[in-house]
Amino acid sequence: MTSPILITGGTQRLGLAIAKDLLAQHYKVIVTYRTKKPSVDELTALGAILIQADFSTQDGLSKLISDIKSHTKSLRALIHNASDWDQEADTEDYNTLFQKMMQVHANAPYQLNLAFQDMLSANDIVSDIIHMTDYVQVKGSKKHIAYAASKAALHNLTLSFSALLAPKVKVNSIAPALLMFNDDDSAAYREKALKKSLLEICPGAQEAVKAVNYLLSSDYTTGQTLHLDGGRHLK
Ligand SMILES: NC(=O)C1=CN([C@@H]2O[C@H](COP(=O)(O)OP(=O)(O)OC[C@H]3O[C@@H](n4cnc5c(N)ncnc54)[C@H](OP(=O)(O)O)[C@@H]3O)[C@@H](O)[C@H]2O)C=CC1
Ligand SMILES: Nc1nc2c(c(=O)[nH]1)N=C([C@H](O)[C@@H](O)CO)CN2
């Protein structure tokens, strides 16, 4: 009996591509979503279990933990992908912004990892936790200060949980820089963003898919970060 892979925020962009690829490999997949959209039905038709969840509140997080435990007794992998890319320019309520970024990007993965550690260790093979962090985890960001701090916290969870859960569970970060533009990104933004890396491309969601599959297949990678940044750190 193969255990399912749980991916959070898997109904658009990188998460959707990862979920579809795992389904195509015949993994059992549980996907969380916050907002109903056509891909919820698309993934259900492909055989995924879709669970509505909003991690921005403790009640929402506690409900998700309960819902997951009602669906399975084990997990092959837990992929923390859900995220909001909020910026300080959009608000003056910095307390709410900071709390929300830390809640979604650090507190939710922290509590889900602790709640599901036994389910992850219940397999005959080594399981995986993957934290989708960000290039800015080590660099910071002038325009997304709270977001960057929360991604740094998420990466620190990689270090702690890899030590705590070894050898039954590998725990790694995937730290992308630009992988996908957003639909409302201007031509000027896109041109400027492309020039921030050495390779000067926007590779698309499959770059994240390939990284996830490497980590799932690895026998010897834990506590690490896969940097998907086109050489931006050297520019
Ligand atoms: N795209 C890129 O180039 C980069 C991405 N990353 C990271 O990779 C991951 C995937 O990126 P991307 O695909 O662009 O992500 P998105 O911005 O598309 O967000 C992914 C999903 O997160 C869900 N989500 C947001 N807040 C909550 C919440 N409070 N509770 C539950 N779900 C929530 C959303 O759900 P819904 O839509 O249902 O509301 C959304 O579908 C993220 O962690 C991101 O930070 C890092 C660097 C670059
Ligand atoms: N949740 C999200 N996080 C991030 C996004 C996004 O669209 N959603 N996008 C980026 C940018 O691509 C950035 O890496 C470009 O420099 C970062 N995080």
UniProtKB/TrEMBL annotation:
Swiss-Prot/TrEMBL catalytic activity: 7,8-dihydromonapterin + NADPH + H(+) = 5,6,7,8-tetrahydromonapterin + NADP(+); (6S)-5,6,7,8-tetrahydrofolate + NADP(+) = 7,8-dihydrofolate + NADPH + H(+)
InterPro entries to which the protein is assigned, alphabetical: NAD(P)-bd_dom_sf (IPR036291), Sc_DH/Rdtase_CS (IPR020904), SDR_fam (IPR002347)
Keyword Oxidoreductase: yes
Top-level taxon of origin: Bacteria
Pfam families in alphabetical order: adh_short_C2
Keywords from the named record: NADP, One-carbon metabolism, Oxidoreductase
EC numbers, comma separated: 1.5.1.3, 1.5.1.50
A Gene Ontology biological process term: one-carbon metabolic process
Signal sequence extent: none
Gene Ontology MF term list: dihydrofolate reductase activity
Keyword Glycosyltransferase applies: no
Family (UniProt): Belongs to the short-chain dehydrogenases/reductases (SDR) family. FolM subfamily.
Job description of the protein: Catalyzes the reduction of dihydromonapterin to tetrahydromonapterin. Also has lower activity with dihydrofolate.
Protein name: Dihydromonapterin reductase
Gene (UniProt): folM
